[in-house]
Design a protein that fits this description.
Structural class: alpha/beta
Bound molecules: flavin-adenine dinucleotide
Strand content: 15-25%
Number of domains: 2
Helix content: 25-40%
Radius of gyration: 23 Å
CATH class of the largest domain: Alpha Beta
Shape: elongated
CATH superfamily of the largest domain: FAD/NAD(P)-binding domain
């Protein structure tokens, strides 16, 4: 009987579930370890999947390509992503999306609602769950598929605590910085041996200590991503000599309602919404992406802002799931005029009225003193609004990988045998800092990354380590 290759996947979030399912489909047996039932960022995410060259695009007559997708990502991050890795991910994206729909049962459709401030065209390759279940729905479906797969041993509540490394593999020569990774040490001390280990453990946004070291500007922000993203897996790779890159990279968010752990639609600024600070003044152009804008808010007095939109914009985004929840929970206010809006949010009424008049003038003239170029119609009463705090969604720095998601040594001597990294654990696609995030980068690295890592782990790994 043919012996199955055994693969360990660390982390059962977006990337880990895809890696496990794909490795199993390719003939491996898989141990999928998850330390925390609700530790995943995908469970708190929008779940909008960006993919180029899909059948949904074809049906809608949209011309797109993996090369164009990669070019758009690079245009946003200042051309800082490894071109080979990025292209491998974008080339895989359509196949992954079709497989998710056909094999995993995620009912994907093209997102056709309001665009994003940084690029209204993004909707042309954005796929969403037809039922509007977002990231939580995706995780439920993907974990459910893992739980029912006969070749996957999903262990929720069992974390990995370190890598098992064998020296002398490959002709008795110890490779620089470490030998072959042959498994993991699981919680409780058990060793799970494998032909390959895929680190799909997310980033380090839940570790204050690691944030202070790598992204001090985000260390004080509230985390809205997964609490299981504590970053130890990145350190395990580094300890074996792996390269690290883009450690300062993170996705911030600029539309989370204060105290509610819920964001308003990312489409609001693009459709004409504005933000004012506690002085009632606009402070930065709003037509940059929400990640970059999170730092603009953090710099304002009190580190907060009020997002303002009107009835026209509300109608454009009201079908989005987060807007339905916001409505149910009464998270936005409605004011008949500027004076009432100011009173509702403790803003100086004269300054706020002047701001609205100035914005109207900018829309009319097409010239905004703050440099906003996406100018739509002026805001008209009644006004809708919410108080917003900047938050940290997820970090994107991590282990340097090649196009097969194999972890590379920092000294240039090639991959660490048996070790792969994906999603938030790998070096991301958004450059450094907060403003290189192109919407969809998170799940591109996680889903396409998981898919590619599974292929590497099953194709290249030597057969059969015992469980
Ligand atoms: C509010 C919000 C909205 C977002 N919207 C989008 C979007 O619309 N589109 C998009 O592309 N991206 C979006 N993102 C980002 C996207 O969700 C993440 O990039 C993606 O979920 C990362 O997937 P992952 O599998 O790498 O990490 P996760 O989904 O966080 O999974 C990692 C898992 O590993 C587990 N783990 C960690 N350490 C260990 C260990 N030692 N042992 C065992 N298990 C471990 C964790 O508990 C966790 O469950 C959003 C993020 C947020 C916060």
């Amino acid at each position: 009987m043919r012996e199955l290759r055994h693969v360990v996947v660390v982390g059962a979030g977006a990337a880990g579930c895809v890696a496990a399912l794909r490795a199993a489909a390719l003939g491996a047996s898989v141990t999928l370890l998850e330390k925390e039932e609700h530790g995943a960022t995908i469970e708190r995410g929008g779940g909008w999947i960006f993919a180029a060259g899909t059948r949904w695009q074809a049906a809608a007559g949209i011309a797109d390509s993996p090369e164009q997708f990669a070019a758009d990502v690079q245009a946003k991050n200042g051309c800082t992503a490894d071109p080979g890795v990025l292209l491998a991910l974008t080339r895989a994206s359509a196949g992954v999306a079709h497989w998710l729909a056909d094999e995993v049962g995620v009912p994907l459709v093209l997102e056709s609602e309001a665009g994003r401030p940084d690029d209204p065209q993004l909707t042309h390759r954005c796929l969403v769950d037809r039922e509007g279940r977002g990231g939580p729905g995706f995780l439920a479906l993907a974990r459910g598929a893992c739980a029912h797969h006969p070749a996957i041993d999903l262990r929720i509540g069992t974390g990995a605590e370190g890598l098992l490394v064998e020296d002398g593999v490959g002709g008795g020569r110890r490779a620089a910085g470490g030998g072959r990774v042959v498994g993991v040490r699981a919680a409780g001390g058990a060793e799970v041996r494998a032909a390959a280990v895929i680190l799909a453990a997310g980033g380090f946004g839940a570790s204050r200590e690691r944030l202070a070291r790598w992204i001090p500007e985000a260390a004080a922000m509230e985390l809205v991503g997964g609490p299981g993203n504590t970053g130890e897996a990145i350190e395990w790779g580094a300890a074996l000599g792996a390269g690290l890159a883009h450690m300062s990279s993170f996705q911030g968010h600029a539309q989370f309602v204060k105290g509610a752990l819920l964001r308003l639609s990312p489409g609001i600024p693009g459709a004409g919404g504005i933000f004012v600070n506690n002085r009632g003044e606009r402070f930065a152009r709003e037509d940059v992406n929400y990640s970059a804008f999170s730092l603009e808010i953090a710099r304002q007095p009190g580190g907060e802002a009020v997002e303002i939109f009107d009835e026209r914009i509300r109608a454009a985004v009201e079908q989005q799931w987060m807007m339905k929840v916001a409505r149910e929970r009464g998270l936005t206010t409605t004011a008949a005029d500027a004076a009432q809006l100011a009173a509702q949010h403790g803003l100086p009424p004269d300054a706020l009225a002047a701001t609205l008049v100035a914005y109207e003038e900018a829309c009319r003239s097409g010239r905004d003193p703050l440099g906003r170029t996406l100018l739509r119609e002026p805001l008209r009463p009644p006004y809708h609004a919410a108080r917003i705090v900047p938050v940290l969604a997820h970090t994107q720095g991590g282990l340097v990988v090649d196009a097969g998601m194999r972890v590379l040594r920092a000294d240039g001597s090639g991959p660490i045998p048996g070790l792969l990294a994906v999603g938030g654990t790998m070096a991301g696609l958004s450059g450094d800092g907060a403003d290189g995030y192109y919407s969809g980068n998170g799940l591109l690295a996680a889903l396409s990354g998981g898919w590619l890592a599974a292929a590497s782990a099953t194709a290249c790994a030597p057969a059969a380590a015992a469980r």
